[in-house]
Design a protein that fits this description.
The complex is a heterodimer of chains A (about 450) and B (about 425).
Chain A lengths: L1 H26 L4 H9 L11 H11 L1 H23 L1 H7 L6 H23 L8 H4 L1 H25 L7 H18 L6 H28 L3 H20 L37 H18 L1 H11 L1 H6 L4 H27 L12 H11 L4 H25 L4 H15 L1 H8 L23
Helix pairs in contact in A: 1-4, 1-17, 4-6, 4-18, 5-6, 6-17, 8-12, 8-15, 8-16, 8-17, 9-10, 9-11, 9-15, 9-16, 10-11, 10-15, 12-13, 12-15, 12-17, 13-15, 16-17, 17-18
Chain B lengths: L1 H9 L2 H4 L9 H19 L5 E5 L12 E4 H24 L6 H19 L4 E3 H27 L7 H19 L2 H25 L4 H24 L3 H4 L19 H5 L4 H19 L1 H11 L1 H6 L4 H20 L18 H11 L4 H24 L5 H20 L16
Parallel strand pairs in B: 1-3
Antiparallel strand pairs in B: 1-2
Helix pairs in contact in B: 3-4, 3-5, 3-18, 4-5, 6-7, 6-12, 6-15, 6-16, 6-17, 7-8, 7-9, 7-15, 7-16, 8-9, 8-15, 12-13, 13-15, 16-17, 17-18
The chains are: A mainly alpha (about 450), B mainly alpha (about 425).
């Protein structure tokens, strides 16, 4: 969990340093060499640094990693309260609380521990299985669920970094899934090539669908929030219509709004053999994460993206073509959400899909991007965490009868708490970091609606 | 005396200052696209027969005759008129004039008339039902967009409208079912919306968390909470907890008897009347009271507002809470407003449509209301046309409002400017 916060934690510190140097330079009559030396060497009259142990302890107690862990704990605690309060055994036992209070606590313990152990066994390792191969299956399920979440989170996060709010994940996924699905069951191509064509087709579909929003924003200034929401509905109805129209997406000879199964040649290969669902999409998602990291931190395009995201006016003055940055960013974001859609139809649900193929991932992706603070590796970790919740949530619902929606509550609380470190510090009475920036800087999306 | 002196001073100025009118080709282009669309209907999908518009329902005191128009001649007339409006707008822009709002309104009404005539060929279109249903469907959107306008005007982006509507719908259903009294449900819904707003305000104002993040996350949180309690508590005890009574319709005595207007606007439930009051109150409050001036000052330039002694964060907090109460009120439409039991995620994205209406309406309560009405009309048009049988696949009818919105946002509204400080936490230094 420390990954997502690290780059962010460093950035303000670097910024704090700059003004000091800048202040020193005009005041001194020294030459450039002097200024450079004063910048490089620390001031001599610095106070004796505190002991290393103290510093380390302080860093741990004020650091982002601890806040993240505590946020998860707090959210799970709230979830536990909800589970306990709505459990029938607890309600029955609390009816005679004053006669035998022990019963109530036992019932609370049983309901909460039962639910959370089912969550763990459904998402990481199932101790009830005999062999390691069977026991580890939940972890592969987690990664399977995480695959589209990471891809979608990258798409939303990239748009955030350019100062745009892409709520259109659902539409982009649906269009990508339809294109990839149509290629997947409608064409006959050799093994490998078929998959590649379907993948590229899906990515293009998602990219173009999102590109509409980018183009309209660049050309006419239409707000991307409106346009992407509208495109969600348009895509949904378009795909619904295609699904019930014979000759487009509907399976021949069927009256259900569902496509035929994908052809063998188009399906993503299984990574760990047929007993696990984990598919090649996960490798693609890792590659996408690396690619997004490279684009954002190492390429000149990414530099322009971030410049536009920080301040579009300043970027324009600096000679960056802001309009085309909006278009490029939406194209890439759409392709990433397209990857989420493609991995759904070619990897997870290969037996044909309906208009519900997006499974809410387009919206979950927003939460993933927020939790990952819009950094590629942060999103990767956040996606796996949410994938674990999703995988575990289903087994929790099956084993303990706890509705899967509790997962939504826990997920949203985690994001809320992580976004507000002072709140978590107050709750746990942690020291306030004096050395760092006084308050958390508002995160990436601050420019979204201010234009 | 002084007026004449001033007159002398100001008189030569009009020549000195050349006025610049910023014109744009967007409106003529959008007009041309829509005209061509209607022309395409007339050329490629001609329909025979006559179209009837029913202007009154059988129970009305004043009965209006059915209006019958021959379909194709009417459609061709409309196309010609649309072309004329388009030509007029081209002439206006070419001679450096603005395209006034009334041409857009005339164009939209003509276009809709032409489309309805075409779509309902050979059938009779119940205009009262169409408009009545449109208004009803627009109610949550209007409440939601008012909440959005208030929030953004005071400087807090409210993406949590969806969550507030859902919380309102849930609480209204539960409280009204338990008490058997829809009024208590109404109050409870306002409280629930306000509670969601409190969380938004606390995180956005006290902890400086990005407002978009809090909003999105609150939507997820409320969806999770309401769905969880629905599955776990409401569904097993539906008779006790989830059989909300509904508000009866209250026809207003004299106004309700006016032809067309009466049945549409004044034979509604109390939720709709509250909506009229809310729209008027927010409009007057925002632009004609001290409260509104302060609110807008805080949203536009918090430093300046602080300098003249307005407590920025307190103003923001309480107005966001007020906005939450309004959105919660809108949520009652889904349950006690229509007499339907609560169900998981029953708001189905209405909050996001309301958000679109806020931006579409350029952060103005009246314009946002009109935008919300447009969405309501479009979704009800689909219902009506599917009842009388329309040649267009229903999915395309459902898609239409969203397509029109994109065209309208891109073509007519274009680059919009929200309140300057919306989304930025005010950190007093």
């Amino acid at each position: 969990m420390s990954d997502p916060q690290e780059p962010r934690g460093d950035a303000p510190a670097g910024k704090d340093l700059d003004p000091d140097i800048a202040l020193e330079q005009p005041g001194s009559v020294a030459t450039d060499a002097d200024a450079a030396r004063s910048a490089a060497a620390p001031p001599a009259d610095e106070v004796e640094p505190p002991s290393r142990w103290h510093t380390m302890l302080r860093q741990i107690s004020t650091g982002n990693a601890l806040i993240s862990v505590l946020s998860v704990l707090l959210a799970l605690l709230v979830g536990a309260v909800m589970i306990a309060f709505t459990d029938e055994r607890v309600q029955a036992a609390s009816g005679y609380f004053f006669a035998r209070p022990g019963d109530t606590f036992v019932a609370i313990w049983q309901s909460v521990s039962g639910a959370y152990s089912a969550l763990f066994q459904g998402s990481v390792y199932n101790f009830r299985r005999d062999t390691f191969a069977a026991g580890i299956r939940p972890l592969t399920e987690t990664l399977t669920f995480a695959t589209p979440l990471i891809a979608g989170g990258l798409g939303v996060g990239l748009a955030f970094r350019v100062g745009m709010f892409n709520i259109g994940g659902r539409g982009q996924m649906l269009i990508a899934a339809s294109v990839a699905g149509w290629i997947g069951f409608g064409l006959d191509l050799p093994m490998g090539l078929h998959m590649l064509v379907a993948l590229v087709g899906g990515l293009l579909g998602g990219a173009l669908w999102a590109g509409i929003a980018g183009l309209l924003k660049a050309r006419t200034g239409a707000h991307e929030v409106i346009v992407t929401i509208m495109l969600n509905y348009i895509a949904f109805y378009l795909v619904s219509w295609m699904l019930r129209t014979p000759g487009l997406l509907q399976a021949p000879g069927s009256s259900n709004p569902k496509t035929p199964a994908m052809k063998e040649t188009a399906i993503f290969p299984q990574l760990l053999g047929p007993q696990y669902n984990l598919h090649f999409g996960f490798i693609l998602v890792i590659a996408a994460t690396v690619l997004v990291w490279w684009i954002l931190s190492r390429s000149s395009l990414g530099f322009k993206f971030r410049a536009v995201g920080e301040n579009p006016n300043a970027a324009r003055v600096a000679g960056i073509n802001v309009s085309s940055m909006y278009v490029y960013a939406m194209l890439i974001a759409g392709a990433l959400l397209g990857l989420a859609g493609v991995s759904q139809v070619l990897g997870t649900v290969t037996t044909g899909f309906t208009a519900g193929i997006d499974a809410g991932i387009g919206f979950d992706a927003i939460t993933v991007a927020l939790l990952g603070r819009s950094t590629p590796w942060g999103i990767f970790v956040a996606g796996i965490l949410f994938g674990a919740f999703k995988a575990g949530g289903f087994s929790m619902q099956a084993a303990e009868g706890v509705p899967i929606e509790i997962v939504l509550v826990v997920q949203s609380l985690i994001v809320l708490f992580i976004a507000a470190p002072p709140l978590v510090r107050t709750i746990f009475r942690l020291p306030d970091p004096k050395a760092g920036p006084k308050r958390p800087r508002p995160i990436v999306t601050k420019e979204v609606d201010a234009k | 005396m002084s007026t004449t002196a001033e007159h002398h001073r100001t008189a030569p100025q009009p020549e000195a200052l050349a006025t610049t009118v910023v014109t744009s080709w967007k409106a003529p282009i959008a007009f041309a696209v829509f005209t061509l669309a209607e022309l395409a209907l007339a050329v490629f999908a001609p329909r025979e027969g006559v179209t009837k518009f029913r202007l009154s329902s059988p129970t009305d005191a004043v009965q209006l005759p059915e209006v019958t128009v021959p379909t194709m001649p009417a459609l061709w007339t409309v196309v010609v008129l649309l072309a004329a409006v388009t030509a007029y707008s081209i002439w206006l822009v070419a001679t450096k004039h603005r395209v006034p709002l009334w041409t857009i309104v005339v164009f939209a009404i003509l276009f809709m008339f032409g489309f309805l005539t075409w779509a309902a060929a050979g059938a009779s279109l119940p205009m009262i039902g169409l408009l009545f249903g449109s208004l009803s469907l627009a109610v949550p959107l209007i409440f939601g967009s008012l909440a959005g306008v208030l929030g953004e005007r005071v400087g807090v982006i409210n993406i949590a409208i969806e969550g507030q509507l859902l919380a309102g719908a849930f609480t209204a259903a539960v409280v009204a079912s338990i008490t058997g009294q829809p009024w208590f449900g109404l109050i409870a819904a306002m409280v629930a919306g306000m509670l969601v707003a409190f969380v938004l305000a606390a995180f956005a104002i006290k902890y400086f968390v990005d407002q978009v993040i809090v909003g999105v996350v609150l939507n997820v949180l409320v969806t999770g909470l309401t769905s969880f309690f629905f599955s776990q508590v409401l569904a097993p005890n539906a008779a006790l907890l989830n059989t909300p009574p509904r508000f009866d319709r209250w026809p207003i005595p004299v106004l309700g008897d006016i032809p067309i207007i009466g049945p549409v606007f004044f034979r509604q439930t109390v939720v709709v009347y509250l909506m009229y009051i809310a729209v008027a109150a927010v409009y007057i409050g925002l632009f004609h009271t001290k409260w509104g001036l302060r609110l807008r000052a805080v949203g536009e330039h918090p430093q300046a507002a602080d300098t003249v002694g307005i407590n920025v964060n307190r103003t923001r907090f309480w107005n966001v809470a007020l906005a939450g109460a309004i959105a919660g009120l809108g949520g009652t439409f889904f349950t006690i407003g229509s007499g339907i039991a609560f169900n998981k995620e029953m708001t189905a994205g209405a909050g996001f449509i309301a958000l679109a209406a806020v931006i579409f309406g350029q952060w103005d309560p009246i314009k946002a209301t009109l935008a919300a009405l447009l969405f309501g009309f479009a979704s009800n048009l689909q219902n009506t046309l599917s009842v009388i049988g329309s040649p267009v696949p229903s999915e395309f009818m459902l898609m239409l409002p969203y397509v029109v919105t994109i065209f309208a946002v891109a073509g007519l509204v274009g680059k919009v400017r929200g309140p300057a400080a919306a989304g930025k936490p005010y950190i007093k230094s």
